[in-house]
Specification:
The protein contains 17 helices and three strands. It has helices at residues 3-9, 11-17, 21-42, 48-51, 53-73, 79-100, 120-138, 144-163, 168-172, 174-184, 189-208, 212-222, 233-244, 274-306, 311-335, 354-371, 373-378; strands at 102-104, 107-113, 116-118.
């Protein structure tokens, strides 16, 4: 009976000390490495705006870490009340982007609110994961077909708005995330197979509906030798940059690189093509260390999912893990010509500002599931 009052007096300290420190360390290490990589990819630019990219990213990382810590210390069950307002806020900002958003790389996907510049699509995805996790955990007795249709409606609204921008990359992100949540949420495997077959059947129709520049990207992916000075230029230069890095790379801030000479697109080398810059400067070794760190981060998330106190926590962690994995796979895949170019950032590493904040917020939810796993089991 003696220690009980003491335990009641220090719940905050117990939460603070009971975090998943491996998750925290990996997140900080990747974010710091991202700032260093952005600096190394942009320091030689004469444009004063470009020279500040690494500094802006560092500020976003600091804000993101603050959001991570707050989210980690608050019981993740608060999402029951916060998910829907965040989801509706994401929809509102997506609609606002349609009218007053800034066009970048052919898509009206960025929104300026005073000094803040962010992509509402990224907020919508994170909020969507929260709503889907809540729905799938609360309505487990509902018929699987009805659950699938209602989840499709939850995802459909933001997806249509994102497609109207048009931002194909952020729209594709939803597919693996949704399938992962369905798989863990108890949707029978036959339904998942049917969804994949229907999606495959609609691919030709989807291709016809793409914008000309998006069709050119797919053509460049399938036939990289076609239009080497146009649509295929960026992907070919990315492959040259990564290949020229060799085993150990040309070194941090190395001169006469594809980056410095401007062969890699100066407007995208610090975000979409950051892995190309890392491959050239840090080589195969640096690339493998980065991929290894991401793999360890994802394994840590899955470890948290395994010990989650309830179905809701499990779904939240799986959703965030699927989101991070899909971004990693898509970004690195497009720089090494495994996938078409879609303009998806590399989590915590690419210059993306608000996206770093969203990923850290998502990892804060994962950490909260770990910190409050015993309390959830008791419930």
């Amino acid at each position: 009976m003696g220690p009980e009052p003491h335990n009641r007096m220090t719940p905050f300290l117990r939460k603070l000390l009971g975090q998943n420190w491996l998750l925290v360390a990996l997140m900080i290490a990747l974010a710091v490495f991202g700032v260093v990589a952005i600096y190394s990819a942009t320091y030689m630019r004469e444009d004063p705006v470009a020279a500040e990219f690494w500094h802006k990213q560092a500020n976003w990382v600091a804000v993101g870490f603050f959001a991570f810590m707050i989210t980690s210390l608050i019981d993740y069950h608060w999402i029951r009340w916060g998910a829907l307002p965040m989801y509706l806020g994401g929809i509102f900002f997506l609609i606002l982007t349609k009218f007053v958003g800034q066009r970048v790389y052919g898509a009206r996907s960025w929104l300026h609110l005073g000094p803040i510049n962010f992509q509402p699509a990224q907020l919508a995805v994170v909020a969507g994961i929260m709503v889907l996790a809540l729905f799938l955990s609360q309505f487990r007795q509902m018929h699987p077909m009805l659950r699938v249709l209602l989840c499709g409606a939850i995802v459909g609204a933001p997806c249509l708005l994102i497609l109207m921008q048009p931002d194909l990359g952020e729209c594709i992100i939803w597919i693996p995330v949704l399938l992962a949540l369905f798989f863990v949420g108890g949707i029978p495997l036959r339904y998942l197979i049917c969804i994949l077959l229907i999606a495959a059947a609609f691919l030709p129709i989807a291709y016809i509906g793409l914008k000309p520049y998006q069709q050119e990207r797919i053509t460049a992916f399938l036939h990289p030798d076609v239009d080497k000075q146009g649509a295929s230029w960026a992907i070919n230069q990315s492959l040259i940059a990564i290949g020229s890095g060799g085993w150990s790379g040309k070194g941090f801030k190395a001169p006469n690189t594809q980056i410095e000479l401007g062969f890699l697109p100066a407007t995208a080398v610090h975000n979409d093509y950051i892995f190309s810059a890392i491959g050239e400067q840090w080589g195969f070794v640096g690339g493998m260390f980065l991929i290894g760190a991401f793999a360890l981060l994802l394994l840590t998330c899955l470890f948290v999912a395994f010990f989650a106190g309830d179905q809701f926590g499990l779904l939240l962690v799986v959703g965030v893990s699927a989101l991070i994995f899909t971004h990693i796979f898509q970004n690195i895949g497009m720089t090494i010509s495994m996938l078409p170019i879609t303009g998806v950032p590399l989590p915590l590493v690419s210059y993306s500002g608000s996206f770093a904040l969203m990923i850290m917020f998502g990892l804060g939810i994962v950490n909260s599931v770990w910190v409050h796993r015993k309390a959830a089991t008791a419930l």
